[in-house]
Specification:
- The complex is a heterodimer of chains A (about 180) and B (about 180).
- Chain A is built from 1 helix and 10 strands.
- By secondary structure, chain A is mostly beta strands.
- In chain A, strands 1, 3, 4, 6, 7 and 9 form a 6-stranded antiparallel beta sheet that branches. In chain A, strands 8-5-10 form a 3-stranded antiparallel beta sheet, with no helix packed on it.
- Chain B has about 180 residues and is mainly beta.
- In chain B, the strands form 2 sheets. In chain B, strands 2, 3, 4, 6, 7 and 9 form a 6-stranded antiparallel beta sheet that branches. Chain B has a 3-stranded antiparallel beta sheet with strand order 8-5-10, with no helix packed on it.
- About 10% of the residues of chain B have low confidence.
- The chains are: A mainly beta (about 180), B mainly beta (about 180).
- At the A-B interface, strand 1, strand 2, strand 4, strand 9 and strand 10 of A face strand 1, strand 2 and strand 4 of B.
- Strand 2 of chain A pairs parallel with strand 1 of chain B, so a sheet runs across the interface.
């Protein structure tokens, strides 16, 4: 009986000895601090509500447009003349930065493909082509900066130089912000 | 010489490094619109008629002023006197514009806004009442002022000082 008790006692002691075993290791973690900037589109209070607002891949739908008819909310028509009419909306661009000393940024824009027949796209009055053009040279970081998006449409009939009617026409505008 | 070359190379490398570190961000905004054909109608003053109030818009006023069978009339007002009534008239212009449409011309219809059981109204020689729209022209030309005469025939029995006022509603439809 006593022998058995002693054996049990030794086993417990052994267990305690095992519990005191420790191991050590070192993880060397390296943080590679990358600087950078990011661009997103936001809906402007005075403009059309953007699809995917708050991202870098947004969409703006003017809806149905015409020289004389009603327009969707957030769309205005600043120009109507015999040759063309212009519809306008406003959208915001926000560029944020991290780890840079850049005071501001330059914003460029270009059409991803040639504009549909009868259409001209302008950002802040600058007519866009497939070649990047400077829209702004001193954009402030971390704030919504509104930009006018104008779509000038020829009034000519389809087939006579004017755009196709009754069908949605889409174009993608590519923007690039570069830290100054 | 070698030293200068070395400096130049280092300088160039620094420039390359500077360009390489320029931070950029990109975004894509897809723009969609659907164009519809449309037409508009505005009234303009005719050089031979009464000057319209609201000329250049689609809500204008033509004021004949004081009219009578035999008295003086305002500028731009003409008169024809019959056996029991007299008619005063003035030309005014209608300008209909089109956009993104292959329509060749338009039809113009007119209708009195309110019943007038006493006086007779005509536009372009076509009687206009409140009962139904009257076709004033079926082949109106776009993009130019088209003159029409607005005529109002008043019975001699009308009391002096009577104010006559009504609106003529016009509708242009692309053909």
């Amino acid at each position: 009986m006593v022998r058995a008790a002693a054996l049990i006692s030794l086993l417990l002691a052994g267990n305690c000895l095992l519990a005191q075993t420790t191991a050590q290791g070192t993880i060397n973690a390296t943080l590679d601090h990358k600087n950078g900037i990011a661009l997103i589109f936001n809906t402007d209070a005075a403009g059309v509500s953007l699809g995917n607002s708050g991202t870098s891949a947004a969409s703006v739908n003017f809806g149905t447009i015409s020289a004389f008819g009603n327009l969707a909310a957030g769309v205005s028509r600043p120009v109507v003349n015999a040759a063309n009419f212009t519809v306008r909306t406003i959208f915001d661009v926000q560029v944020i930065q991290g780890g840079t000393n850049s005071p501001n940024y330059t914003l460029r824009a270009n059409l991803a493909a040639a504009a549909p027949t009868g259409f001209t796209y302008l950002i802040d009055g600058i007519s866009l082509t497939t070649t990047a053009q400077t829209v702004q040279t001193n954009g402030g970081y971390a704030t919504d900066i509104p930009h006018n998006l104008d779509l000038t449409v020829l009034t000519a009939a389809p087939g006579a130089g004017g755009p196709a009617v009754g069908t949605p026409l889409s174009t993608t505008i590519n923007f690039t912000a570069t830290a100054n | 010489m070698k030293k200068l070359t070395l400096i130049a190379i280092v300088g160039a490398l620094m420039m390359i490094s500077s360009f390489a570190s320029a931070q950029t961000a990109t975004g894509a905004l897809t723009v969609t619109a659907t164009v519809n054909g449309s037409i508009s109608l505005v009234f303009n003053s005719d050089a031979s008629g009464v000057a319209l109030t609201g000329a250049g818009s689609n809500v204008a006023t033509l004021a004949f002023g004081n009219v009578s069978a035999y008295g003086a009339l305002g500028a731009g007002v003409s008169r024809a006197v019959g056996a029991s009534n007299f008619t005063v008239s003035s030309p005014f212009d209608v300008l209909v514009s089109k956009s993104n449409s292959a329509s060749a011309n338009y039809t113009l219809k007119a209708q009195l806004n309110a019943v007038d059981a006493t006086n007779a109204w005509q536009v372009g020689g076509v009687a206009v009442t409140n009962a139904a729209q009257s076709t004033v022209t079926a082949t109106g030309a776009y993009g130019s002022n088209v003159p029409f005469s607005l005529a109002l025939t008043i019975p001699f029995a009308t009391a002096s000082g009577t104010n006559i006022s009504n609106a003529v509603n016009f509708t242009a439809t692309a053909n």
